Amino acid sequence: MFFHWIDTRDYLSQYRLHTPAEVLKRNHVSRWEVIRDVAIQQVIQTAVGWLLGMTEPDDYYGKEGYEIAVWARRIRIAQRAIPDILGAIGLDAEGLAQRVAGSYPTLGGTLAGGRYPLLETTVSSSPDPPIVPAFAGWEVITAEALYWYLVPAVQFLSAIVVVDTWQYFLHRAMHMNKWLYNTFHSRHHRLYVPYAFGALYNHPFEGFLLDTLGASVAFKLAGLSTRQGMWFFTGSTFKTVDDHCGYALPWDPLQWITSNNAGYHDVHHQTWGVKTNFSQPFFTFWDRLLGTAWTGGDVSARYERARLAAQRKVDQDGFITHSNPASSLSQRVEPYQNDLANSTILKSLGPQQIKPFAPSGKATQQAAGSREQVLEDRKDGGFGIVLEEAEEEKDAKLASRRTARKRSSGSTMQAGNFKGLRERVNGSLHGRTGARLGVESSR
């Protein structure tokens, strides 16, 4: 609702990746259809969440205290190895324990292998309660740190790795298999300009398989509790929404923590990048490891449609995540080595109908495969999508030339103002116009 609110009131427009006009012009699905399918997805996720909850053990009073005591017991058992470890390096653990026990009884007990004869406690409030051994203070503190912080951190990290792996390979399969893409995944790619509440706009089967089931498997494999699962599912949803929000917000922590942010995923929704940047929702390590990250470098020339100056500022500040432009020439082409050769529909089009194309190198292969997939999707893509993009780029080039003529006409300014003009022109060359020339000159 936050992103919809700033969308409709045109707040923070300097951070938008696309203009409101693009949302209306380039998307091929109505907002009502998006809301309908997202609502279906929410019903499915709620039902699966209820079923998962039924499989979890019941909570009970004192559970946290019991779990902490279990960890303290494990720490006590682990201390039994200390005398052997010290003995292996030539130290007498028993002798050390006796020497320090008088001044530091806890340290002495630790060196002796976890024997604390003076630590005792009662286990009831009866007049004559039984006395049993107690845990040392450091054991309890360590157990609490493990229970409340370290173990949950490992569990959450494990769940993130599982869900990232699950979604990467299934998502990639949805693009590499024509039947899967045309039958299921192409529905999500009707949104060429993503917005926040369209993040979960999917075919119901795909939404269940990719999002709901993937998060559920991660929840179970990581051993998350019901409370942790609620945080994990909520965090995953927030991250997915943020990746589709259409804003490169400099103060958004979700866009700073990982390189998989709105700018990174937005490339995946473009006709020339649809077969790249598959990673979601958290990290991009699978794209980097398997060579499916977009290698075409700065794509600002493709984004600058209406708010050129604002987009240039965002790109210079680094809030759109793309790879280095030079990396396209040095990257190994796998797994795109055959995409250009197999792009039969793309080759049948005239050069004017498929501009703008990508820089040379691996990015050319990536863009060819991506556009071929759009052209093969007769229902939700096709020639019209590529033609629309060519017309948009043509308009952008005309606007750039008009801007260049205006700069040229300003060359008659007085010498006192020439320095300021030069600085502005240099800023444009390194920002907006430089990015545009960098893409166009490689055709």
Key phrases:
single chain; 443 residues; mainly alpha; two-stranded antiparallel ribbon; 22 helices; disordered C terminus
Query: Using DSSP, what is the number of strands?
Result: 2
Low-pLDDT runs of 5+ residues are 305-317, 319-326, 411-443
Helix content: 55-70%
> Separation of termini?
41 Å
Q: Could you give the order of the helices and strands?
A: HHHHHHHEEHHHHHHHHHHHHHHH
Gyration radius, in Å: 30 Å
Q: How many helical stretches? A: 22
- The strands making up the biggest β-sheet line up spatially as 1-2
The averaged pLDDT comes out at: 78
Write structural notes for this entry.
- This protein has 443 residues and is an all-alpha fold.
- It is 60% helix and 1% strand.
- The protein has 22 helices and 2 strands.
- The chain has a two-stranded antiparallel ribbon.
- A hairpin with an 8-residue loop joins strand 1 (120-122) and strand 2.
- It is elongated and about 90 Å long.
- The model is unreliable at 305-317, 319-326 and 411-443 (pLDDT under 50).
What is this structure's SSE topology?
Blueprint: H1 2-9, H2 20-26, H3 31-55, H4 63-78, H5 82-88, H6 93-101, H7 105-111, E1 120-122, E2 131-133, H8 137-176, H9 178-183, H10 204-221, H11 226-243, H12 253-257, H13 262-268, H14 285-290, H15 300-303, H16 308-317, H17 327-330, H18 344-347, H19 362-376, H20 383-409, H21 415-430, H22 432-440
Antiparallel strand pairs: 1-2
Summarize, please:
The chain is mostly helical and 443 residues long.
